[in-house]
Amino acid sequence: MVSARLSRRAALRGGAGLLVGGASLGVLPLFGTPDRKQDPASCRTRDLSASDRRLVVSNWPGYIDEDDGDYVATLTEFQERTGIQVSYTADVNDNLEFFAKVVNQLGSCQSSKRDLFMLTDWMAARMIQVGWIQPLDTAKVPNLHANLIDSLQGVGWDPERTYSAPWQSGLTGIAYNRSKVGEVRSFEELLSRDDLRGRISLLTEMRDTMGLIMLAQGADPADFDQDDWDNAIDRLRKARNDGQIRAFTGNDYIQDLSAGNILACEAWSGDVAAAENEDLVFVSPEEGQMIWSDNMLIPNLASHQGNAEEWINYYYEPEVAAKLAAYVWYICPVKGAQEAMEKVDPSLVENQLIFPSAESLKTMHSFMALEEFQIRAYEGDFADVIGG
Amino acid sequence: MRRGRFTGYWLMLPAGLWLALFFVIPFYSLLATSLFDPEGSVLTGYSVDYRFANFVDALQQFWEPLVRSLWYAAVATAICLVLGYVLAYAIAFKAGRWRTLLLVLVIAPFFTSFLVRTLSWKLILADDGFVVDTLQFLQLLGDDGRLLATPVAVIAGLVYNFLPFMVLPLYASLEKIDGRLIEAAGDLYASPTRGFLKVTLPLSKPGVVAGTLLTFIPAAGDYINAALLGSPNQRMVGNVIQNLFTSTGDYAAAGALSVILMVIIVALVMLYIRTAGTEELV
Q1: Is B193 part of the contact surface with chain A (CB cutoff 8 Å)?
Q2: Which of A188, A197, A250, B114 has its CA 20 to 30 A from that of B99?
Q3: ipTM of this model?
Q4: Which pLDDT tens digit goes with each residue over A301-334?
Q5: What are phi and psi of B80, to 5 degrees?
Q6: A284 and A152, same structural domain?
Q7: Which residue on chain A is closest to B147 by alpha carbon?
């Protein structure tokens, strides 16, 4: 009797367990993720710009001038001139991280609560391709079409600049702290010098880091094959396993460089100037450097599109662009800014980090456009080394 | 009698709903993620393919950070146990009127955020900071030696951040011990050491079990300490999972690795509770 009851209980329990287990497996498909492609024409909202003079902007840290004593920042001037209240946040630290931040909203046609953000070419291309970005009204951004420098016109992913407007271009090279370590001239030195072991950092931006490694190995980042890639990944893995690399970082490397925790690192050109520490030096590596642009984009369902276009148009005035470039020290994408720089700061007119000559442009390489399957494979390889 | 028949269920309702919403549903979602077809992508969407091979792939690829996490967490828990036991013992038996103040001090770090506290360790342990300088002066650390970006810094960070979780349960169970039992041990000619081993230690066992669990479990899944105080060679499994989710967008591997971590921890905890016994946990 007792054993019969026990086995019945066991059977009931087992049955219930199976049922719950089976039902659980059955509901799992509900948790799949949808296709994230959207149509910018249908993911629009009424533009409140005329009545609601506000603008929400997300940008990278240290990428804009700030009020300082008598100096009036371009942003302040914009607010005074237009009456638009800008809520400006420096919450872009890494393209992929920012992508992960907005994928759930923009991927399902919901508002990202932002009107404008700045992302690097390849990420901008990707977002435009999946339909997350609103086209700019040509009539409202005349300065963009009149003043964009030639080298940035006609890019493959947005030939007419219908969706994007370059904010700044920049170089990826090397920075070092000259009070703590001797000059670092090449990327190969960065990866192999003994006195730098455990005291360097590289960027999590795959195209920057891998591009520089490929240049150091004599490959061309703008046109490479699988072997070039594999060699470069092996080189990176070796440097990591040797303990050469202290960290892989986003925009936050500059604090560690100032503090002396790292002595040298892969760096973006303008950051070093913005750090206002005269011991920090930016170097164009002997092997060549990477060039890229960050682009202003207006996402779907932005409710202040008109205000955002006013912003874009404003920053394409040569005087404003010169003022901004003098502060951030990145390559200025605006024609006429070099002439306007005479009035802002004559010492910067010939600065190759801001207005590179045709000759310096030759040392600057870009990373080739990747197909989605390549992005997956390459990002996967790269993440394996930096995160595993 | 009849009136109270459903009272128990009503009382359970709020917590039950909360758990259903914030534990059961995410749990299923995670389970589903671990069985995604890895051919999908964040942009094109992932479908649940019941691909159990994800677990094998994840283990093969990421066993190293997985083992490292369990090892770091175990070492940190052991250090916490030694430090925490001495501290809790002192507060419970020797602190007298300072007891409340000391307890507040144990909890005080919680008044600032986890992130800020860990970042400040980065300043303290900096390569040119006074700690490293002092250790170098005392020849405990080579001239080019450092603390940041070493396992020492990561484990020290884990110990620091999770110590209160060890001290509080230990204190709770030590404080409950009837002092007369220890006196009785002395009356029966037990030496203080023997009295401690035979009376105090066994009676504080529930605190030891609770404290080690509360320390080990979060420490094994932590990624902030490794990210801020370690280098890529100290990556823990939490960092890998975070990277897979946010940078690579490889949800299938990230989900599989999360489930593996969860299963390992649950298995270890069950084993531990079986052997340690927790008839009266806390």
Answers
A1: no
A2: B114
A3: 0.80
A4: 999 999 999 999 999 999 999 999 999 999 999 9
A5: -60, -40
A6: no
A7: A261
